[in-house]
Amino acid sequence: MAFTAYHLTQSGDLRSGLNEEQIRSAFTNKDGLLWVDISETTEEDGKFLERIFGFHHLVIEDCLSKRLHPPKIDDFGDYIFIVVHGIDYTTETNVVGTTEMQIFLGAHFVVSSHATPLFNTEAVRRLVEEHGRPMRRGADFLAHALVDGLIDNILPTIDAMAERANDIEEEVIRNPQRSTLEAILHLKRSALQLHRIAAPQREVMNRLSRQEFSIVSNEATVFYRDIYDHILRIEDLNQSLRDRATDALSTYLSVVANKQNETMRTLSIVATIFLPLMLVAGIYGMNFERMPELEWGWSYYAVLGFMGTAIVGALLWFRGHTWITWGQTEVARLRPFMVDRKSLVGYLEHMSMPGHRNRNKQPSETESPGI
């Protein structure tokens, strides 16, 4: 059983490293604020939670279960039970992994439980040990600090996924390979994984920010609203990544199909050119005794000339129908993206860019070109 316990007394003294009896005493006497953080929850930790705090056995089962539960919030009167999700940074996989943290929030205590180590709890623990600030404002603000750090740690993963999407889009156009397709599918699965936790987590934060629970003070609801806004931003960014992954998959399939068409076009060109040559070679390769052309002195050169004419004619025909683009000048069709400034609200002629204002104006003899 591995847990860390802090107790901030009403007189402002901070005690750490509490044992089970000290935790029981602080919880029973309701003296100040008690925070117990349990990492890598085991069966023994479950018995500890039921023995000391008397939590409902169903929520204790949620803490002990190895399966991920959807984000939720349950009200048990004296305390509320919150399940929130974050990124699992303990393992490196091709698909983003998530982990959950359970929080028991009461008027005078906060109990946090998580199966894997979390950076946000370590950050809050350092702040508590330095000056106790997260605990001095109350249990609801301590729970806010834990949840806020967990949600903010999702943004670095979103940024990493955006960089991966940029690499995928460049690779899809430049040189799509099977590994590119695997990267696209991994990105789609990662975005779907984040979507599964962000949508219900938004509702949890919404309930905490609208004064639904008496344990959460009116002052703290504003801070939970800030977390709600962060989740909305994460959802928007994640949705953009899902759309980019879908577009990259469509582009990949189109590029692969175009490459196959180019291959078939090359084979068609080669076959079209050599079919008449094979016909001529097959005709004059037959072993008949009476073939009038064989006795003609210029027959060999005539056959070679016909073959050369057939090759040149086929190449010219393909080039005229743009099947072959060798030697043709590519015309740039892209133009800079520009907007007519007169269509903009608040446009004034004297506020236009200097390059546009003086485009057709020649400098006078008394005017310096640099003015």
Question: In words, what does this structure look like?
Answer:
The structure is a single chain. The termini are far apart. The protein has a domain at 3-253: CorA soluble domain-like (Beta Polymerase, domain 2). The protein has eleven helices and seven strands. A hairpin with a 5-residue loop joins β1 and β2. The chain has helices at residues 20-29, 43-52, 57-64, 119-131, 133-136, 139-152, 155-174, 178-208, 218-283, 299-320, 354-357, and strands at residues 3-8, 14-16, 33-39, 72-75, 79-87, 98-106, 109-114. The model is unreliable at 356-361 and 363-371 (pLDDT under 50). It has 371 residues and is an alpha+beta fold.
Number of strands: 7
Helix content: 40-55%
What is the residue-averaged pLDDT?
84
Q: How can the largest sheet be summarized?
A: 7 strands, mixed
Shape verdict: elongated
Top keywords for this entry?
alpha+beta, Beta Polymerase, domain 2, 11 helices, 12% strand, single chain, elongated, disordered C terminus, 7-stranded mixed beta sheet, 371 residues
